[in-house]
Amino acid sequence: MTSSKSISISIIGGGCSGTLVAVQLLRQATVPLTIYLIERHNPQFGRGVAYSTQEDCHLLNVTADDMSAFPDDSGHFLHWLENQAHLTQSLRPQDVHPKTFLPRKLYGSYLQAILNEAEENAAPSVRLQRINDEAVAIEPQTHGATVHLQNHQVLHTEIVVLAFGNFPPSNPRVQTAEFYSSDRYVKSAWSNDALNELNSEESILLIGSGLTMVDRVVALKQHGHQGTIHVVSRHGLLPHRHKPDVTHDRFNPQTAPQTRALVRKIREEVQALAAQNQDWRTVIDSLRPVTQHLWQTLPVDEQRRFLRHLRSYWDIHRHRIAPEIADVVDELRNSGKLVVHAGRIASYHEVTDGVDVTIYLRHTKDNIVLRVSRVLNCTGPTYNYEKLQHPLVDNLRQQGLLCPHTLGFGIKTAENGALLDRKDAPSKWLYTLGSPRIGDLWETIGVPMIRVQANNLAQELRKQIETEGKYSQLFGVQSQQTTASTAKLL
Q1: pTM for this one?
Q2: How far is it, in rounded angstroms, from Cα 68 to Cα 272?
Q3: pLDDT per residue over 238-272, tens digit each?
Q4: Could you tell me if residue 208 is left (phi over 0), alpha (psi between -120 and 50 degrees) or otherwise beta?
């Protein structure tokens, strides 16, 4: 490494994951440090894709009391909200409480606020540099690496954190793949122009029936769409709704040697609760603290079996939606304006006034043909880093610095978030968190998990530097307590 006067850490990705790492570093660093926060999409650092939406109908899928950015201060988000009347004026006072599901755009403002606060209150020699550009290559050096940006700028840095977040979905495999270049197809439902110039009376097809689909459906409803909204997915399953007053401490299995045995235990617990007129959500929610451990105790073959047979069912039970959002979905289904098909797309045939989509229905030999004006891909993020086409991922993969996970989900990482190279050796300068670790942790994409990883990663960087006997004063003995800084932020 170079002298202590030129330490730098590059965080690639300025969404939620990257912002939380930057905040932790700004709060902990006490000697000269430059943090480069690099974001290719959104000049509003902190929001990323998930929290950039300005739709009031796009709500958090977790209650406000579990959305603090800091694992040591569970009420931080709520305390911040109490002093943001200009942001919450469109909400009724009774809608802002610990168990409410708030608009995601509010959380985006919160992430921006804590980043600004951490920068403002950082030690004098600690600085944050926001860079609105794309990292396209990383070149390892004797100590650290060189990060190459798309605009030809070069950053020399000791440590790199990959905070990619979620990549857009891949196109479903069909025989008529040329349709994917049509203006009637939108590869990512989060594209800014996804619903542009869509006639409110026209039919539309959404591919995928998970959380992304729900977001698009409620947005269409809010914008007054009157046409039929068709949804197709392999199983035709939609996310369940949250229910209030569900406790989380009943079921706590310690091992999961077989997927089938774990499912049997879960069913037994659900049946026992049903006999007492209690809700199945208690069982699923009680698994949250041990899901990562259970996943890691499963042999690889059992993990594959879970992904192949049970993932869709797990997702709709585990990743639920706010009750008011579920009400909108139910209303549209009951009125016939939202139609869900279980099956797979066989082909597209574009015609003058739309596109005919042939769907093979599940468990039958039948097929149907839907004429729609637009097709939106709502299948969710791409996690397969073997097939992912992205300049930086390609660069790191070719060098053997980034290795796709055996399961085809995420990348190989060590317990501390360091990337494993092609020899399974952990990097001393290249780290990640969040969705890239899905193969190792499974439960890794929500704020409650990411905030812990961000805090742990900041501590790990300190540990690494101190172990090498250099820059032992880069970080203070302890993180500044969140509660102490809350007053400054407010």
Answers
A1: 0.91
A2: 33
A3: 999 999 866 656 666 766 668 888 888 888 888 88
A4: left
